[in-house]
Amino acid sequence: MTRARTAERGGNARVSAVVVDDSQFMRTVIVDILEEAGIDVLETASDGETGIEAVLDADPDVVTMDLKMPGVDGLEAVDRIMAERPTPVLVLSAHAADGAELTFEAMEKGAVDFFEKPSGEVSIGLKQQQEALVSTVRSVANADVSATEAAAQHARGGTAGGASTAETTSRGTEVPDHPTLVIGSSTGGPTVVEGVLSELPIEADFRVLVVQHMPEGFTERFAKRLDDASDYTVREAADGDRIGGGDALVARGDSHLEVSGYGGGRLRVSLTDDDPVNNVRPAVDVTLRTAAERIDGPLSVAILTGMGADGADGVRAVSAVGGAVIAQDEATSAVFGMPQRAIETGAVDDVCPRDELVAGIVDATTEQQ
């Protein structure tokens, strides 16, 4: 049975966890950090099989999951947990290329989010990131795992998918020239973003900017996955990049993505290391604010699942210049924070379930003619 959505946890509200990692040292460090923050660690496990048993026995709010373990690894453990006792899973991942790929595979199997394992001296690195780790654990504990499973099923080509590209374009609508789409997402977002890019009609000729809260070292691999899944040409953004129709850029982890120029249907971007906005970098608000300032063609925004309020100020700016704003609905969002805050601004034109996002984007862009 899938656990029902819990009330949003914040502050010092109690959260329970199971910690799965084959390193006793890492387990000890993680447990110390979580328990110091008031998170109840019910059980620990050194491999996937024991981790699955711990989840079935303890029924925690959240699981932290290592991926590379002997015997039953983290990928199989996530898959079986989602089949036997669906529970929000936070992957603890190395940022190396193979670690990044395994992380995205775990999210396809139903993991909600991931947290980058520090390099170098583990205890020092992780202690320095204590506040971020605790915040992420609480965020994932609050996730609606049934929505995450639906997104994962769609990414695997299952029955939870939405309208195909052919279905979307068969409506006979004609998107205006030189449209731009900005996608903003956080917790639970990667599989949803992948679904949107895989369905977005290439005939619409969008210039696409993706701002997904994700650390440096993962966004390049994320862009490659999107490129493989989509008819659009997708790459990680570099400072000074220019794109035209049919191109997409993914904001690089730990850098804000600004629209620095626009003309002739092509836009130019800049990367900055300015202070985090809404406690994140890249921030959706930064990209949306600069897009609203500089793009004079059709501009559409999709705010997807994620914790927090990033994007809310930006959608106001986009709406003020006549752009269109779409938000993912609560039922299909793993975490309804970002879409809800955007909706509360009054700037959102349409609220769509996961399987209608692309149709909503195309329709909203068409209406800007």
Element layout with pairings:
Layout: E1 15-20, H1 24-36, E2 39-45, H2 48-58, E3 62-65, H3 74-84, E4 89-93, H4 97-108, E5 113-116, H5 122-128, H6 130-141, H7 145-155, H8 165-169, E6 180-185, H9 189-199, E7 207-212, H10 219-229, E8 233-236, E9 242-243, E10 247-250, E11 256-263, E12 266-272, H11 284-294, E13 299-303, H12 312-320, E14 324-328, H13 337-344, E15 350-352, H14 357-366
Parallel strand pairs: 1-2, 1-3, 3-4, 4-5, 6-7, 6-13, 7-10, 8-10, 13-14, 14-15
Antiparallel strand pairs: 9-12, 11-12
Helix pairs in contact: 1-5, 2-3, 7-9, 9-10, 11-12, 12-13
Description:
Strand 3, helix 3 (74-84) and strand 4 form a beta-alpha-beta unit. The protein folds into two domains: 15-143, Response regulator (Rossmann fold, 3-Layer(aba) Sandwich), CATH 3.40.50.2300; 165-366, Methylesterase CheB, C-terminal domain (Rossmann fold). The protein contains 14 helices and 15 strands. The chain is of the alpha/beta class. It is elongated. The strands form three sheets. Strands 8-10-7-6-13-14-15 form a seven-stranded parallel sheet, sandwiched between helices. It has a five-stranded parallel sheet with strand order 2-1-3-4-5, with helices on both faces. Strands 9-12-11 form a three-stranded antiparallel sheet. Helices cover 38% and strands 21% of the residues.
